[in-house]
Amino acid sequence: MYDNVLLTLDLNHPISWRRALPEAVALVRASKGKLHVITVVPDMGTPLVSGFFPDNFKEKALTKAEVELQKIVDAEIPNDIDVKQHLAFGAIHEEVLAAITKIGVDLVVMASHAPDKMREFLVGSHADRIVRRSPVSVLVVRA
Predict the structure, then answer these.
(1) Distance between CA atoms of 127 and 109, rounded to whole angstroms?
(2) pLDDT-derived band of residue 69, with 50, 70 and 90 as boundaries?
C-alpha cells in the first residue's frame, strides 16, 4: 500500500500533529512501510529580516529542533514502527515538497487547522500549498 509515509510536524504546536501522528502510524503499520517524520525550521524570509538574527541562528535552531524531534519520536512513535527523522530549514511548503521527491514518499500525512478564509486569502496555508503541488496523495487531518 504505502512504502514510505511522510508525517509533517510543527514542533511549536503539538495540536498540529497529535491527531495526524496516530493516522500515519496506523497507515504505516497496516502497509508494513516506513514512517518518515519531518520538521522544518522556517527561515527568516528576507535578507532584511535575517540581519536582525544572530549569525549562528540557523545552527542553533536546527540543533534545538533535532532534540525536540527526537523527544517526540521517542515518546509518541511505537517501537514496532520503522521511523526515520528529517530536519530542514527554509520555506515549509518548499522543504516538504523537496522531501517528497528526495525520500520517494508515497503519501504525506499532515494536520491543518480549520480554514480561516481571511487568513488563507492573505497568506495561504502550508497544507494548501503542499496539497496543490504534491506529486503524491496528501492526507490532511483536521486539528
Answers:
(1) 10
(2) very high
